[in-house]
Amino acid sequence: MRESAGLVGRAAVQRTTFEAPAGRRGVCDTPGVLLAGAVAVLHASAVLFMVSGSLLALRWPRLLWLHVPVSLGILALYVTGSDCPLTTWELGLREVAGEPGYRGGFIGHYLTEPLGFPIEATSTQVGIYVVAFLPNVIGYGLLAVQYLRRERITAPGR
To answer: Residues 4-39: pLDDT tens digits?
Structure first.
């Protein structure tokens, strides 16, 4: 592995030469890899928020204004089998930085495959749906109970 400095604009960029899988030499752009990693962290945050946002809204109800569209957007992408724009962005940044990409999408690459659950398996898909829906069903159910209790207490004539 050899390191060299490159110049992008006025900032010095650390580049690392590495042996590519097919025996080709490649150049790794460290800031690009870090940016791709930041996109992956943003992606993980969006997924965690989708899973737990309704439970967080029990404490901070205004989060629902963000949780509902985020959840519906992620659900629409997942159900239609569309590519997630964050995954596309991350993979594009990795490619530009000289890093290898991955297959199977974000959840498959970072969560299910490392745990030994192939993303294509029906049981894995069912598990993903359960993990995504169950906290939201509980959270929205508790939010509905809170709302109904508040309405009953504040209703005139009772």
So the answer is: 343 333 334 444 444 545 544 555 678 888 999 999
Q: What tokens appear for 133 in the block? A: 């829906």
How far CA 127 is from CA of 106, 111, 112, in Å, comes to 16, 12, 10
Measure CA of the first residue to CA of the last residue in the chain; give whole Å.
76
| pLDDT at 123 exceeding the cut of 90 | yes
Residue 49 has what pLDDT? Answer: 95
CB 58 within 8 A of CB 143: yes
Can you give the residue range of the structural domain that contains 60?
31-154
CB 40 within 8 A of CB 92: no
Phi, psi of 5 (to 5 degrees): -100, 135
Residue 3 burial class via C-beta count within 10 angstroms: exposed 0-12, middle 13-18, buried 19 and up: exposed
Task: Give the number of domains in the chain.
Answer: 1
Structural tokens at position 140: 């929205």
Q: How far is CA 69 from the centre of its chain?
A: 15
